[in-house]
Amino acid sequence: FPFSPFPALGCTVKYSGYLGNWNKLFCSSGNSKYPRLMKLGKDITLWGLEIGLLSMTKGEAALFILAPEYAYGQRGCPPSIPPNTTILFKVEVLDFIDSEECDAFFELTYEQQERLPLEKLLKVAATEREFGNYFFYKQCFKIAKDRYKRALSILGRSSSSKAEQNQINASKLLLFLNLSLTYLKLEHPDRALKYGKLALEMDQGNAKALFRCGQACLHMREYSKSQDFLVRAQHIQPFNRDINNELKKLARYQKEYMEVEKQMCCQMFNPLNSYG
To answer: 187-193 long-range contacts, Cβ below 8 Å, gap at least 24?
Structure first.
């Protein structure tokens, strides 16, 4: 079935396909902890499987028996699937992401995008962030970073309404925080610090932004700056385990640094050995 009338849904699914009475496995998503994101009608094209998946909700598992007309038809799919074969699918839906509006949005011209209502822009940006989150948790940090930045590009519009601008800024704040963490994972602490500071410009008392900035400075061995950010974060969330552990790590690094400095000073000022 080359054409699917279903919306552009992205889904992560664990699946196993069998022939006969569950006795011959012909396809599987494997044992991957992070199954790849697939689109209905593009990556998943079996008519019966599409219908089945659209009847499911996130977290649901199901068994489907697909007659040939809903599977591989009269021709089958040699050599794995004989002609006119009924197949069985065991599936579990891990997540759904509707990409239809995103796909449509990026096909518009810049002028058309600018004329869209804010609610539409915010929804598209939120979906792009969901895609970024999916790839982040799959540990595909470069792809996640690109999706977060794509979402930011959508939110470049300025608004004369304070209420609308607050909505835009709230969406941007989440993306700045996500980008800061993603750049830490990519081992680019300077960029992580940049996005952490952008988050702080929108919310000076954001403990997570302060924490990210502290982490970035610690990676860059800027211990004084790191301590400033982390202590400010601790004042806001004194019982946050991650913040307190980072402060302990900072104290350990500072101690090690001071010991190295002390050794270097001793070597520099140690009296020269005298000769006979």
So the answer is: 187/219, 189/215, 189/216, 189/217, 189/219, 189/220, 190/216, 190/220, 192/216, 192/219, 193/217, 193/220
Write out the H or E segment, with its range, that includes residue 24: strand 24-28
Pick the last residue of a domain from 78, 98, 118.
98
Residues ≥6 apart with Cβ < 8 Å to 149 = 179
| Tally of CA atoms within 13 A in the half-sphere of 31 that contains its CB | 0
User: Is residue 3 domain-resident?
Assistant: no
One domain, residues 124 and 247: yes
Of 203, 261, 267, 192, whose CA–CA distance to 225 is shortest? Answer: 192
Q: What pLDDT digit, counting tens, does each position of 142-159 carry?
A: 989 999 999 999 998 777
- In angstroms, the CA 163 to CA 178 distance is 23
Does residue 28 share a domain with residue 85? Answer: yes
Whether the bond between 79 and the residue before it is cis, its omega within 30 degrees of 0, is yes
In total, how many domains does the chain have?
A: 2
Distance, CA of 69 to CA of 41 (rounded, Å)? 16
Token pair in block for residue 191: 């960029």
* Tens of pLDDT, residues 208-225: 999 999 999 999 999 999
Domain that holds residue 186: 109-268
